[in-house]
Amino acid sequence: MDENPYAAPQVELVENAGPRQMLGWSPEQFRLLGWLSLVSVVGTLVLTGLAAASGAMQSDAMPTSADWLSAALTLLGCYLLIQLKRFAEARFSAVGLGWPVWAVVVASLLVELLDFVLGDASLEPGWSMLLYFGVLALSGALTTWMAVCLLKVQNAYPVFRVMAWLDLAGGILLATVILMLLALFPLIAASAAMMLVFFKAAGELEGRKV
């Protein structure tokens, strides 16, 4: 039978840019990253509680525990951010994330190092305080830059964009220094959104709708 030249094509005109692009990734890896993001959220909430409690209680052990927990959470956050970059590049063909992500990682580690080295001196008037809050403001500005780049990622999950907007709000608040305590709320929410991004990616690889 002759083929109808006016019939609709029977093949896909556009290849589905789905999970097949994520070579080297597995659902188990994404689920692990999702659980680690949850650990980051819970750990940050615990750290906030310890910081509040240390102001009301005089204990040598509590500040030490908070310092170690803060360092561990900073390293975990940097690791998750790097993995998020790799995921966005693999799944959404994201470009231009390298410099902003690595800049945020370096700034975060520098803030943590200054906090460890300077200790209470970072809150006392002088060059130490200016240095510490200057780097903190820089970290906020770099987070804002990274968030703008995340918002430019095409065809991203809705929750991915929510995460980027939360990072943008947190970065702007952190850059002001004066409102840095308020920055904690959108940044924690951004970590929770990152958790959902990783879990959605795991479900996508397994062929489930999440």
The average pLDDT score comes to: 84
The end-to-end distance, rounded to whole angstroms, is: 43 Å
User: How much helical structure, as a percent, in the residues?
Assistant: over 70%
**Uncertain spans:** 11-20
| Cα-atom radius of gyration | 21 Å
Order of helices and strands: HHHHHH
Largest sheet: none
Shape: globular
β-sheet strand percentage: under 5%
How does the helix and strand content classify structurally? mainly alpha
**Distinct helical segment count:** 6
Extended strand count: 0
Description:
The chain is mainly α. Helix content is about 70%, strand content about 0%. It contains 6 helices and no strands. Helix 2 packs antiparallel against helix 3, helix 3 runs antiparallel to helix 4 (about 125-150) and helix 4 (about 125-150) runs antiparallel to helix 5. The longest helix has about 30 residues, at about 60-90. The protein is globular, with a radius of gyration of 21 Å. About 25% of the residues are buried.
Could you give a quick summary of the protein structure above?
The protein has helices at 27-56, 61-91, 98-118, 127-151, 158-176, 180-205. With 210 residues, it is an all-alpha fold.
